[in-house]
Design brief:
Blueprint lengths: L1 H31 L7 H13 L2
Amino acid sequence: MWWWQFSYVSSWGNLAGAALNALLSVVAHDRLDVDVDLDADQVAAADALLTDQP
């Protein structure tokens, strides 16, 4: 009985780690596809200031 428990826990740990790595990979790739414009307003204001000067 203890061997069954050990093999189950050992296998579950490996499968859980693999599932977690796969989930983290999906989340990381999903975040890489998102365009982030955190400073878009500041860049637009600076561009407007630079183009308006004589």
